[in-house]
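Table 4 source record.
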Amino acid sequence: MRRFGSMAVGLFVALAPLAAAAGDGPPDAWLITKAKIAILTSVGTRGTAVQVSTMNQTMTLFGTVASLEDKSKAEKLARAIEGVMEVRNFLQVIASPAAEDADAASDSTLQSAVGVALMTMGLKKDGPLSRSSISVRSVDEGAVLLAGTADSLTAHLRAIETAKGVRGVRAVRSEIQSPDAKAVFRPRYLGQ
């Protein structure tokens, strides 16, 4: 029994630095959410379908953007997130069809449509926006500005995605206040 106990202690001592190193950075879900918020509010919305995955602080961007500038900007935003060690950019540039430009809706129509979409998401019991207070502050030539408070980083992202999904929205910007999930992140170590 004594030999097993010393082996267990030795194993713990040997693996503890590895566990600490793996747990030093922010969790992958936090990195993904922060990247999506940054990209969706900074890169043009039309023709943009960016997906993000992260493993061990290496972020991969894939999907489509409307220009080389948007592709470069998305990568720069991902690299700027604290905790991201490497970014692999597999985004494809696919220009938006010209026919979509004919779908331009008036700003007041868009403001109402985005407001209804956010309200619908907020009314869903236990939905991501049910405990948040997010509204459309303004719409200018199809660019939607969201404001208010979100009860989580996930709710913040969901509001941006909801606005982005409304037909005619050209861009989404955010002044939403939300808690930073990384602030409550605590690495787990072996034996806990």
